[in-house]
Every structure is written in C-alpha cells, then in structure tokens.
Amino acid sequence: MFFASDNGSPVPPEVLAALARANEGYARGYGADEIMAHVTARLREIFEAPEAAVFLVPTGTTANALALATFCPPWGAVFCHTHAHVAEDECGAPEFYTAGAKLVLVPGAHGKMTPETLAPVLARTGAGGVHSVQKGILTLTNVTEAGTVYTPAEIAALSSMAREAGIPVHLDGARFANALVATASSPAGMTWKAGVDVLSFGGTKNGLMGVEAVVIFDPAKAWEFELRRKRAGHLFSKHRYLSAQMEAYLAEGLWLRLAMHANRMGGLVAEKVAALPGARLLHPAQANIVFADWPEGRHGPARAAGAVYYDMPAEPRREAARLVASWCTTEADVEALIAALTP
C-alpha cells in the first residue's frame, strides 16, 4: 500500500539488466559512451527532431534548473504556476542556477495556468523598465502538481503568448510519459510542435533508478548547457550508467507501458476513493496522481493497516491526502488501500 510517490517504486527488471550489461568491460566517460549515442539517436527519433541536443542528468531538479538557466538571464522572470515544482519543491535551485532570476507565480485552477491567468502577469512584468525584472521564460509542468494534464492545444496557446512576449518555453516533464499517454498525444506534438524550446524528460518517477534527459530543440543552446552542467557538478564521470538506464527505458516502448499502467492504477484509485462514504476528489484525476479528502478519523486506521501516503492541508473536521500510483502498483494494492480507508 505504498502511495506516497512514484519515485518510491523499485526499478524495472529491464533497466537492471541493462545496467548489468553496461557494467561489462570499459567505456569512455563523460557522455562519450556508445550507449549515449544510441540514446541521443532514439530521442531524436521519438521527438521527430533530428537536430535536438540531448543531455542526461541525475535528478529532475538538475534538469529543470539548468534548463531554465540556459534560457533565462539573471534579470529575467521565470513564469510558473503558483504551485509548480520549481516554485515549491526545489529549494531555490532555479534561482541559484540562473544567478538570480525571479520566479513570477501565475494562478490557475487545478494546477494549470490559462491564457486568462497568464496574460495580466505577462503584461505587468517589465513595466518598470530598468527597475523591473524582465520577461525571461515560461515554464509549464506536465503532469501538473495537481495531477492534471495540459493538452498539446493548451500548451500551444500558452506558448503562443510567450512567443508574442519574446520569451522561450520550458516544459517540466518529470511525468512526461504519464501526460503523453493520458492525452494520446505524440512527443513532438506535446513539445516543439506546440512551441516548447526545452524539455525536462523524466525517467526517475516512471521507474528509472535515477536519470532525466534534457532535450533542447534549438541546438544553438547545446554548448552553453554542456558548460553549465559541468560547472554545476552534474556531468557524470561513469556516464554509461545513466545512458544504460535511459536506453532501456526507451527500448520497445517500455517508458510508455510503465506510464500506461501507472495511469490505469491512478484511475482505479480515483474511482474507488471517490466512492468512499463522504470522500471527494479535489482535482480531476487525469494521470497517476489523486488528491482527495474525507471525514476525519481515517488517517490513523489506514496508517495502522500499512497505508503510506502524504497528508495534505484539509478543511476543519476533514482529512486530505495525495495518493500516487506507480508502474508496479497492483489492483490488490488499491483494494487494500480502499479497505484501510473504509470507515
């Protein structure tokens, strides 16, 4: 009954096998390994972007912070949702790696900004001339921190506004695969075709031991990112162990199969939690993350039964939780959770 986060899951056997193969003999370091060449070619194929630059880093925070730093100057504004991961869960890393760019928060229901919420924030940013932070970059999160997803059309609408403002677009795709299968979209359609300049392509939350890819659709920015990655201390010496994970992830559609299963289990959690007496969903459950609340008094028995999840702020006399399914969540896990939460 582990529903705290999908990054608490074990590693799929296909990935462990790939790591064992990569561990045989010698390989060049710092990303010059042959496996990395295969990863780059495969991601270019998947994204229909033959000139895209591809880099691997160990964490999502690294991917986001270095991507933003590459595209946003220190005096720039990083436009993000009020509850975006870069705003609430990265300990100031975006501000640190950009050397001072300001996070400018954009509201929106269920974790999603809209053209209507973004427009006034864009309009007032930089209005004070040299005294004001200037427009820097727009960053979107898919899947959002509320468990909802942006469609390619929604991303395109927001990206169009960014283009009119003269700024690039970053997509935080820590759960990119989950968003992709939830919307039945194509990787290209959700990214560069919708106006995205740089993508943090997640792996860790979808089963990998620890690796994320940064995909830069404008290769002119590649060298700067390389320098920033090295200067930040995130260029792995034994890089093949990152490459091997990502190669296995992308082989034969594993990344999509893992996400499909996680989403299916997330949907089952949402369906069954919503049917509990007095319970309700707090956001549309569109991928593998469910936010719900229920009458107080259920956390204790559920935890005693072995349920693991995060508490969330709740209204008086109610309890709330975030429940996250992973690639290896089973229907039996879900049934056990529901039994533990049933009064």
From TrEMBL:
Cofactor(s) recorded in Swiss-Prot or TrEMBL: pyridoxal 5'-phosphate
Domain Aromatic amino acid beta-eliminating lyase/threonine aldolase: from-to ranges: 3-291
Pfam families xrefs: Beta_elim_lyase
EC number: 4.1.2.48
Cross-referenced InterPro entries: ArAA_b-elim_lyase/Thr_aldolase, Low_specificity_L-TA_bact, PyrdxlP-dep_Trfase, PyrdxlP-dep_Trfase_major, PyrdxlP-dep_Trfase_small
Catalytic activity line of the entry: L-threonine = acetaldehyde + glycine; L-allo-threonine = acetaldehyde + glycine
Name by which UniProt lists this protein: L-threonine aldolase
Gene Ontology terms, MF aspect: threonine aldolase activity
Keyword terms, alphabetized: Lyase, Pyridoxal phosphate
Enzyme class per UniProt: lyase
SUPFAM superfamilies, alphabetized: PLP-dependent transferases
Function statement: Catalyzes the cleavage of L-allo-threonine and L-threonine to glycine and acetaldehyde.
Complexes and interactors: Homotetramer.
Family: Belongs to the threonine aldolase family.
Keyword Endoplasmic reticulum: no
Any one biological process term the GO annotation gives: L-threonine catabolic process
